[in-house]
Structures are given as structure tokens and as C-alpha cells.
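Fold this: Vitamin B12-binding protein
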Amino acid sequence: MKPIYIYLSLLSVLLLASCSDNENKQTEISTNNDMRIISLMPSNTEIIAELGAAESLAGITVTDNYPETLDENLARFDTFALDEETMMALNPTHIISHESNHDGNQKIIDNVVSNTGAELLIVDDASQIDEIYSTITDIGEFLHKDAEAETLNRELRREVTSIQEEYSGQTPDDKALILISTTPDVYIAGSETFIDSYLEILNIDNVFQDVNGYPAVTSEDLIAREPGKVISTLGIDNKGLTQELNSISGLEGTPITRPENQCTPDPDVISRPGPRFTEGLAAIAECVYE
């Protein structure tokens, strides 16, 4: 009896091990190939792609334009008017929302989560570059891409250090204005903003450092601050920026209306708290210091 008992015991162990292996494989497949992700913020979509999960995207926003290899057949959502029916039809497994627009969409998203069983991650709004690393970590954990997130953060930190070292010891003569919009009102970026953290890293003084957030300012405010450089997020070239600034009463002919004092980087790389922020950092540094 003993040999038979031992044989049956060994067989049971092998079967259990086999079942365990199969379960692990099924989990791996479920967490990688079977994910259907809806991303409701372009910067998060860029992170998802960098983590190697672009093929798992099922829906993105109407403003998503990077990476350029995004499937043109992906469902597109207007985050100001989410289409609940389309979201339901995608049967998502993961939804990545964002603090900046989640409150307005919470009811629809909660309904979709309730009816599909999708997992939900609400990404915090990054107000500092350091918080991008946390966002990448959070999304990596949510999508079971922990190792990829760690590698990406390590590479981004290395790039930031390299840029800082390249321009270390340099200090610009003039303070910079971060221009967000000119019409119908002039909006700028002050301290405690994501874009201002670029200037902090590069040792550039923000002419509105004593103001928090993204306030509207008057032409008198701009004239009084006497900015020597302007960093624009308008997405227009120097000629267009000069025209915009000259149209503001009192700014005609001031230093920031001249192209040599204007920085016009791709607005997406300096305004999106995603993995391309180092491109924005390098663009601003090159414009101000070279």
C-alpha cells in the first residue's frame, strides 16, 4: 500500500503544481494581453505607451496626438462630454482618469466601472516635476508594469541630471515670463505650477514667482515686472508671438517682443506632465542659455 500511497501523493503534488503554473500563466495573460485601457488624459496615454502598453489601449481623448503610432481606430472621447454608451461598449478592464477633470465625469465613470467591472485609477494632478515620477509609478503598478515604470523613472532622472550639469553655474541676466494665453485675457504661470518647476531646475527666475497658480494679469502687471525672456505655451512661432505681444497695450517694442528673447517650444512637451518633459526642459535651457 505504501508505494501506491506515495505514488498518489506525488501525482497530487504534480497536478497542483501544474494547476498553479496554469493559473499564473492565465494571470500573466490577463494582465498583459487582455487589458482594454481607456485613458482620459494625453500625458497618461504617453506614459502608458512608454511602459509598453500602447497595444492595450481601447480609448483615448480627442486631444491625444502622441505617440504618433497610436492606432487611428481607437475610440476618441471628449472629456468635457464623455460618451457613456461608447465607453460601455469598449468593455474596459482599466480606466485611467485624472484629478483635473474627474469630478465632472465621476458619475459616468462610476457607471461604467459598475457595469463593466473595470479597475479605476485617478491620477493626481502633478504640480512639480518630481510628481511625474510618482504618476509613472502609480500607472506602472496599476497596469502591472512595475519594472518598466522603475526603468523609465531612472532614465528620466538621468536625463534631468545631465541637463542640469550641462548648464550648471550659469545664471541668466533676466527673469522669464511663462505665457499661457493672451486672449481674451493674459494668463501666466506663477509658482507652485508644473511649468515653473522647469525654471527652478534650470536656475531661471520666474518674473511672477510671488504669484501662485495660473492667474490672469493686466498689461500694467507685465510692464511693471519687466521680463527679459518669454516662454510661450501658445504653440505659435516667433513672428506670431511678436504680433500677439505687440497687440497688448504698453508692451509694444519691449524686450520680450523681440525673437531673440522668445522661447517657443512644442507646448505639449512643456505642459504635459508625462515622459517627454525632459525634452521640454532641454528646449527651455537651450533657448535661455544659448
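Strands lie at 37-39, 57-61, 75-77, 94-98, 119-123, 176-181, 186-188, 216-217, 229-232, 262-263. The chain has two domains: 37-163, 170-289.
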